[in-house]
Design a protein that fits this description.
heterotrimer, A mainly beta, B mainly alpha, C mainly alpha, B: elongated
């Protein structure tokens, strides 16, 4: 199955800029379907980015984040060629992870 | 065709008419109003110019009739007919007016 | 005899379409259409018009340019490429249905099919291809359909729209029908397409910034944040109809196809920018 995570990390002179797009329905649990039944909540709860064995960014998400979320952030202390690992876990216990080389 | 006494025919006609007027209650009034509204909306449909509130009013009229509230049902059916007629009038109007809006 | 004479007179004098006095002139219409928008937005490059609201609002434009690094239609694009290359049950693929194997041809759609006397959109062609090869047609407005047309649009990115209107009565009638639909007010709210996209491009309707009608087809199909997914031109037509309280037509209705034909022709020369992302 194709990965749900697209990630790109570019190292600058000072900071590394990371962008990630994650494929996920992010159902809030408040929306009804065409038959009037509530669509159960199914959304990412945590997203973790690791570089050099350390966690550099953690996001705590919930029902307020929209479908197919996009996240962008910068961090210091990494260089070109380093590996960046990203992992997400949702409220149903599902998860996915991906690694990318910092460009 | 066999011969029937004219008196028998007259009596039968009278009986049928009485039966019909006894049966013409609120349900029939609603049926009539609903049919008129549906017909008007059908004409709007042929012009590809129906309005969504027309459909809502028809649905609400049907629901009211199903629950026995014929006063509301007839009122909603008449509302639906008015909306349908307004959409037809809009289509006829716009058929002439649209060229005024055209960029030339 | 008098009845016949009356009917003959009625035919000439009576119910003729309003344009019947002059032959439709699409080239003249195109020039007037383009001049209207370039005069209204003199600082805009002609090709910028295809970016809809992003060409109208600086803040939105900045956010959009950032997002284009990782656009929301990325997943649909991948799926579209996969579907495009997957053989049908009979072994053929989409490439067998389209000119140039279906690559780099999006700018030629819609076109007028003289034999069938109708406008053929890309979506219609995709579904006809599926049916001709024993497959079930896609939903005309979203999901797999939008994924496949997104991929096909992507292979045409940058190519100028090249819609042809043959000089035949039926083709010109379809064009004129599309034009009429664009300018006619409809729905209980009594809006026409022109009410928003000709009168108020760059202004707001509730919280949305309105796109100009010039080049409004060029980014199709689009990922609309409002939909949380992809949609084709017909998806936008049906939802716009509902928004003005007009009952939408069937998504593949000939009237919608005629409207797309008119709007696409008006964008001739402007580049394909699809698939697109919109708010």
């Amino acid at each position: 199955m194709a990965s749900t995570i697209r990630v790109r990390a570019i190292a600058g002179s000072d900071v590394t800029e990371v962008q990630a797009l994650i494929q996920h329905p992010m159902d809030s649990g408040f929306v009804k379907d065409a038959d009037g039944k509530l669509i159960p909540p199914h959304h990412i709860e945590t997203v973790q980015f690791e570089a050099g064995g350390k966690t550099v960014f953690t996001a705590l998400w919930g029902p307020a984040v929209s479908k197919d979320p996009f996240v962008k952030f910068s961090f210091k202390g990494a260089k070109k060629g380093d590996e960046l690992k990203i992992t997400w876990m949702d409220n149903e216990g599902k998860s996915d992870s991906s690694t990318a080389k910092i460009q | 065709m066999y011969r029937v006494a004219p008196g028998a025919i007259a009596l039968t006609v009278l009986a049928l008419n009485t039966a019909a007027s006894i049966a013409a209650g609120p349900a029939d009034v609603f049926k009539d109003a609903y049919a008129k509204a549906e017909a008007a909306n059908g004409r709007a449909g042929k012009l590809k110019n129906q309005w969504t509130p027309t459909q809502s009013a028809l649905g609400a009229a049907r629901k009211a009739a199903d629950s026995g509230d014929y006063d509301a049902a007839v009122r909603l059916a008449k509302q639906a007919e008015d909306l349908a007629n307004a959409s037809i009038a809009q289509s006829e109007r716009e058929d002439k007016l649209w060229t005024d809006a055209e960029i030339r | 005899m008098r009845k016949v004479a009356f009917l003959l007179v009625a035919m000439f004098v009576g119910a003729q379409p309003s344009w019947a006095d002059e032959k439709p002139a699409p080239e003249k219409d195109l020039k007037a259409f383009r001049d209207y928008f370039t005069a209204r937005f003199p600082k805009l490059q002609l090709n910028d018009f295809v970016n809809g609201p992003y060409s109208m609002n600086e803040d939105m434009r900045k956010q959009w340019i950032e997002k284009e690094d990782f656009p929301p239609y990325d997943f649909a694009l991948d799926r579209g490429k996969e579907l495009f290359g997957t053989p049908f049950k009979d072994g053929k693929t989409f490439a067998d249905c389209f000119p140039n194997k279906g690559i780099g041809i999006r700018q030629n759609y819609p076109y007028f099919d003289e034999k069938a006397a109708e406008v053929v959109t890309l979506e219609l062609a995709v579904n006809r291809c599926l049916e001709a090869n024993g497959e079930k047609p896609y939903s005309y407005v979203k999901d797999d359909m939008a994924a496949v047309t997104a991929y096909m649009a992507f292979t045409s990115r940058g190519k100028p729209f090249d819609i042809k209107i043959p000089d035949s009565a039926k083709a010109l009638q379809a064009y004129e029908d599309g034009k009429r639909y664009f300018y006619e007010r409809r729905g209980q709210l009594n809006f026409s397409c022109a009410s928003c996209h000709v009168q108020y491009p760059g202004e707001r309707i509730r919280a949305e910034v309105l796109a100009p009608a010039l080049g409004i087809m060029n980014a199709m199909p689009i990922y609309r944040s409002e939909w949380g997914g992809m949609g084709t031109t017909a998806r936008r037509f049906t939802s716009c109809n509902s928004q003005v309280r007009a009952t939408p037509l069937e998504p593949d209705d000939p009237t919608y196809r005629n409207l797309e034909y008119y709007l696409s022709y008006m964008a001739n020369g402007l580049p394909v920018s699809g698939p697109g992302a919109r708010p």
